[in-house]
Amino acid sequence: MKNSIYLIAAISLITISCKPKFEIEDPSFGEMNPSSYVALGGSSTSGYSDGAYHLNGQENSYVAILAKQFEEVAATSFIQPLASATGINLDGNSRLIMGYKTDCKGVNSLSPVRVAINGDNTILGANIYSSGPFNNIGVPDLDITKINTPGYGNSASGTGNYNEFYSRITSDEINGTVLGDALAQNPTFFTVRLGEQDILNYATSGGTQAMPLTNGATGSGFDGSLDEVLSAMSGTGAKGVIATVPNVVDFPFFNTIPFDGLVLDASQVTTLNAVFNGTGVSFQVGKNPFIMLDPNSPPSFVRQMLPGEKILLSIPLDSVKCLGMGTINPFSDKYILTLEEIDSIQTKTNEYNTIIRQQAGNYGIAVVDLAELYSSLKAGTVYNGISLSTEFVSGGAFSLDGLNLNPRGQSMVANQFLEVINKTFNANIPFASSIKYPGIIFP
Amino acid sequence: MQKILFLLLILPLQLFSQGYQVNLQGQVSQGMGGAGSALMQDGSALFFNPGGASFIHKNEISLNLTPTFGNSTFLENNTNSIAHTTSPVGTPFSAYGIFQIKDSSKLKLGMAIYTPFGSTVEWEDEWAGRFALTRLKLLSIFFQPTVSYRLTDKIGIGAGFIYSYGKVNLQKDLPIQDANGEYGHAELDGSGNGIGFNVGLFLDLTKHVNFAITYRSKIDMKVDKGTATFTVPSSLEDKFPSGNFSSSLPLPSVFTFGLGITPNDKLSIAFDGNYTDWTAYDTLSFDYENNTESLDDTKSPRKYVGSIAARLGVQYKATDKITGRVGFTYALSPVIDRYITPETPDANRLNWTIGMGYKISDQFSVDASLLFTQFKREATNEETGLSGTYKTRVWAPGIQINYTLK
User: Fold this and answer.
1) Residues linked to residue A302 through DSSP beta bridges, in sequence order
2) Quick one: pLDDT band at residue B405, thresholds 50, 70, 90?
3) End-to-end Cα spacing for chain A
4) Measured between CB atoms, does B81 come within 8 Å of chain A?
5) By percentage, how much of chain A surpasses pLDDT 90?
6) H-type alpha helices, B254-319
């Protein structure tokens, strides 16, 4: 009797404390097969972020996250040309983290700082193809017109025809090409994110570097070069997806320093008005547009910036604060996107996207509308209680270079890809949990 | 920075109830689907219908406790990640005392102490909705001194004044990470009080049919000097100053229509229909004493809609000592899809209840009941973007001891 009472009590306790369960459909690849997945693209695909090529960025690039989600379905391998935690960029610098910096005026404040005094020079010193072949052949600063040009990994090719990052992973310095290295892996699945880098190369140079022609043969035009890539990749029988190009002018790199951020007091106004007397430029107390060089603005060839024009994050801020940059030393063109340049970026973006959609249609490649994802970031969005926007640092989606996404942002890109992959190939691959990927780390 | 962070501070609600209204009162009515405004059997009449209390011809004290075992599981859309609640057992209780000055007096006095809302909802660590809610603890006690008067042999009226006292502790993680990967945390802790009333009319229409109309007023629970504590990376501490906050939570008015039918001495049937005016819960505001660019006052839309519930119960007196009860409730959720939150994964629901009473002696009796319900809701919250399906299951066994003063 006593025992049966205990038994009833035990069963009751188990019953009332059991948790509701869900039946979850088994994950599957549907009609796609990522057993040999190759990712093609520029900086964002390589994992370049926080202003450098580094381990954490690579491990959290959207393509690495995609590969991780494929693992949820079945074991697949995804090999990356991993660098060190310190990382390196072409100026020899390490990656950025949030820290404290003292500016020229002695003010100490929270700011992106380099994680080490110098970048890790060993990263770009040697070719590591032997530890490949690499599923991720995203190449920082990739120029699409060079994607199938032999020697792009050879320093002898000279500036503009040579990419140090590709040199590191090329199968052959003399003859290797990015596209050739991709095809050599007999891909069964591929993702392509091209065009964005070419526009970024132009935009981050303040419009001083050229963008590829919209129409032109392979090696000179965007449509010819892309066509060569897509026809070769889909020609292997592999299934693939391609991303559209976002409006890069929305990125924090172009929107953090306001064009009219020059705040002056009365005595500064008097001094500057005297300096600029006769140039047609005058100043007032309070906010003023910065001053820039403009060869089309005679006779002084300087003018005030116009609303809508962008100051790049690459500007030396200490020079602005203490050396009169943007006033008595007007900004040079490489730090500025003029209205005309912004206009040409937008035109080019639309043209590239039209071509991307056309060619994707021709080759039966599904389109991931990344442009839309970035627009929603620009408008401000919320994900599981996290607000995300294109604000520098506080927006929570971009890394500290203001150009590439941080791991959380990358995971949202990966999910955008997965949405299309699942739909197109009748797959059921679970999305990445974006809250598990870090945004900005604060000290 | 991250101004919208605090848009996300969500409202204190009770997990396992319609909106945040708990209908766990006397075990007699609980065994009968929660119906009982027109069937005056015990001290819970003070809660259900102050007008009917005058028809209870005894001095009685009832104590009652309903341990509530609630479990929710959340399945996030797209990621298929699953999270469970780890909430402790809820312990709604109530105590009723009914007294008459002298035998068969027309005037009855009563005191009801009850917990119309209160529980702890806790989600497992690092769950998908951690930036919406990690833990919500609510405690509240209502004190309701009541006067009930029998106008005629057929009509009773009554009124109770309600003083309520409550405590709330709301916690969630903040999406700001430090170098160790630890997220920030916010804790809002406060207490508040409010006043209201509970009135009712009881009609003993015929020997077999009773009729009831009751109205419990809205009560605004005001928190004046709550304490907000923020744990954030040291570099952002000045942006999230800990300090006081104020807020308020409306407990909506409830209008009830009840019917009691007693075909014979052994059988009773009770039906209640409730309309709860949840439209009172339109916005949840938090007003912080120290605002910064990162910490704004918040106004979160809730937009609850008025909701109805239907309750039906049957009681059968098997012997002089033993009574059996069974019933159910069907209740509509006041929460619209896009405002579903992790503390109220509310849904339309069907509650099943059974109960029994046992008379130990002329002075002592006990009543017990068991409530079971489970429900499911898929929703995407507009403010947080949290998107998925909640499944909730509740078992609530309750016990009540009655002592009749001779």
Assistant:
1) A293
2) confident
3) 63
4) yes
5) 90
6) none
Residue with tokens 């790049």: A312
For B89-121, the pLDDT digits (tens) are 888 889 999 998 777 689 999 999 998 766 788
Task: Say which CATH architecture domain A34-254+339-436 belongs to.
Answer: 3-Layer(aba) Sandwich (3.40)
What type of residue sits at position A272? Answer: L
* DSSP single-letter state for residue B19: T
Domains annotated for chain B, with CATH where assigned, are 3-405 (2.40.160.60)
Where in B101-182 does DSSP place strands (E)?
A: 107-114, 119-122, 135-150, 155-178
List pLDDT tens digits, range A103-153. 999 999 999 999 999 999 999 988 999 998 999 999 999 999 999 999 999
Residue B341: half-sphere exposure toward Cβ, Cα within 13 Å? 33
Query: Residue B76, SS3?
Result: strand
Contacts of B132 in chain A (CB under 8 A): 384-385
B235/A16 touch (CB, cutoff 8 Å), yes or no: no
Q: Which residues of A touch B82 (CB under 8 A)?
A: 22
Per-residue pLDDT, A293:
94
**Token pair for residue B299?**
């106004």
**Sheet strands (E) in A42-165:** 96-102, 108-114, 136-138
Percentages helix, strand, coil for chain B (3-state, rounded to 5) are 5, 60, 35
Using a CB-CB cut-off of 8 Å, the residues of chain B touching A24 are 75, 80
Beta bridge partners of A442: B178
